[in-house]
Amino acid sequence: AVRRGSTVVGVQGKDCVVLAVEKRAIA
């Protein structure tokens, strides 16, 4: 369960970073 949670958080974190970078690039 812990590993799954960490994986989910890591994936979401990467998505958030990608979105942030895209927003900065667009802005």
Automatic annotation (TrEMBL):
Protein name (record): Uncharacterized protein
Pfam family, one: Proteasome
InterPro entries xrefs: Ntn_hydrolases_N, Proteasome_sua/b
Organism this protein belongs to: Phaeodactylum tricornutum
Cellular component GO terms held in the UniProt record: proteasome core complex
Protein's GO biological process: proteolysis involved in protein catabolic process
SUPFAM superfamilies: N-terminal nucleophile aminohydrolases (Ntn hydrolases)
